[in-house]
Amino acid sequence: MTDTVTIAVDVMGGDRGPAVILGGAGAALSRRNGIRYMLFGNAAVIEPILRGMPELAAASSVHHCEVAVAMTEKPSQALRHGRWRSSMWRAIEAVKKGDADLTVSAGNTGALMAMARFCLRTLADIERPAIAAQWPTLRGMSIVLDVGASIGADARQLIDFAVMGGAMARALFNIPRPTVGLLNIGVEEVKGLEEVRTAGRILKETPMHNLAYGGFVEGDDLGRGTVDVVVTEGFTGNIALKTAEGTARQISAYLREEMSRTFFARLGYHLAKDAFDSLREKLDPRKSNGGVFLGLNGIVVKSHGDSDEFGFASAVENGFDMVRNGLQQKISSDLTEYHGAEFHPEFREGATGTGGL
Amino acid sequence: MTDTVTIAVDVMGGDRGPAVILGGAGAALSRRNGIRYMLFGNAAVIEPILRGMPELAAASSVHHCEVAVAMTEKPSQALRHGRWRSSMWRAIEAVKKGDADLTVSAGNTGALMAMARFCLRTLADIERPAIAAQWPTLRGMSIVLDVGASIGADARQLIDFAVMGGAMARALFNIPRPTVGLLNIGVEEVKGLEEVRTAGRILKETPMHNLAYGGFVEGDDLGRGTVDVVVTEGFTGNIALKTAEGTARQISAYLREEMSRTFFARLGYHLAKDAFDSLREKLDPRKSNGGVFLGLNGIVVKSHGDSDEFGFASAVENGFDMVRNGLQQKISSDLTEYHGAEFHPEFREGATGTGGL
């Protein structure tokens, strides 16, 4: 890794159009030193916008692509029609070729994952990639995975998620030995899914100097920040993530309503405005924007489809930090270590079944 | 059903002890007309408390039980040791014998479910009971099930949950034709679990005059109140419920912190106190306390283990309302109708597989 981090941006992805994507890229440029952009998309759209953004233009190369993957396209369609020529594919391919250090896209998640798997391939020891989200907690920030790359996971895959999530926590939060918990219902060891229980037993019995197994955690431990990394399969993880986002929006709506109802409430709101602003900032989902695809030969960051410039900039910055902090190397070395002879034999032999959730 | 609703209370269940349970029972008495209590527990503990609560004493009969099921007991242990003699078992048995209309317990959930299944048995057409929770939304209140009775559900079980949840919405919210959604990830029909997709297809194709199928919903639809009834299997439902509770607590903690940080914030808080109180009331999890076991030959309401008097009273009142509004009859008649010949043949034949989640 050089001092420069080269970021391949799928300019055509997202609900809000190329101007927002480029605006976000420009904003990130001013907050991180050493970003170079490779901008993939329709040059006739990108170049006029860049003329108004000289700093971004100076840090970027434009790579014209004829095809833009639609937000509504099915992954299989996108792979058939968009491959080779779409901005999404070519942004991923830039990482594969070694031209870029990471890809950022606000496009269609399913298509992005399908293309990323197809183009970059999974790491040697990984059966399935995962999408990892950053989750704001009362103690700071946690990592939760998988939040929707695939449905169901067997014990081995859950353990892979634990190892990859741990590496991400070390890369992003600078924690030498992150704690990891398995999402479950009830904290008694007798409860829960067979695969989750098996994964828990293996994690408990395996000495890992980079990761501290913290046992089972429940849904309310997510906001509490009980552990640094929460591992679950993609269906439950996605539901949990969206439930938390929905609950935050619901409470914000209640708060807005209550604070505008009476004169005293409005006056109180005005006086406490700094406090409300600070609360809003804490709850701002844009700051932790960017699901990271883990387990591939390259880093792909998925920005929320409807994110604004600030949100897209956060996704870029998160990706930048992960590259700078050697996320891929950390994942590879951990996987090599824990898939090695030290690891519990059951894990190697896949004796835990393949049932999934 | 007579005008009186007889409620069998497991006085020994819960983290806070019999005085809180009896306090809650007393509070509910003043808010609903026609409650009779059968109090199951240690008479030497109950009677001294009742002496200080003459109204509750007048509305209650005390049934001495030697055994109290511990909060930490495994369901199998509780069934072995507590059957016949425990306050939990005997409170459930009172419903089976027809002496009481419903059971309310704040005790060990696993033991309560095991005993309720064993004693009351599932309804003729039901393979598995579910625990239904009331979920406060921006539009009012929804019902979510299963929030943890069992792990995994096949298409047929998911449809049973839809029918039972619909009956509960009619009984509690007085909605003639509740909308029901299946919790899934992504709203595209191509996504998601096989069983969820099959259930969705069958619900869509089946004419049901008591229930309107609203398609797939995602985690953030829970707080939005997109549908009246949200159906999922128990693992995901439990995680979603606890994630929402945890997020609400997290935001409340942020808010408290911010509102005490500066002089102006504290002043603003003081001025807007009514608004904050109203917000607190909206977020109060005690109001929707009480998971209902659906699908058994009798109503069992599970109060949160650490609920206070107000919370336990809410559980009692919710149970009372369900009995008054004929929940069991509604469930039975709906199941008879939808398990009848009109229903999609696949559903009857169980051709959707038994894989579960």
Topology:
Two copies of one chain form a homodimer.
Chain A: E1 5-10, H1 18-29, E2 35-41, H2 43-51, H3 54-58, E3 60-64, H4 75-82, H5 87-96, E4 102-105, H6 109-120, E5 130-137, E6 140-145, H7 155-173, E7 179-183, H8 194-205, E8 212-217, H9 219-224, E9 229-231, H10 234-259, H11 263-271, H12 273-283, E10 291-294, E11 299-302, H13 309-324, H14 327-338, H15 345-349
Parallel strand pairs in A: 1-2, 1-4, 2-3, 4-11, 6-9, 7-8, 7-9
Antiparallel strand pairs in A: 5-6, 5-10, 10-11
Helix pairs in contact in A: 1-13, 4-6, 5-6, 7-8, 7-14
How would you characterize this protein structure?
Two copies of one chain form a homodimer. Chain A is of the alpha/beta class and 357 residues long. Chain A is 48% helix and 16% strand. Chain A is built from 15 helices and eleven strands. Chain A has an eleven-stranded mixed sheet, with helices on both faces. In chain A, helix 4 packs across helix 6. The longest helix of chain A has 26 residues. Chain A starts with a strand and ends in an 8-residue tail after the last helix. In chain A, 56% of the residues are buried. The interface between A and B is large, with 64 and 64 residues.
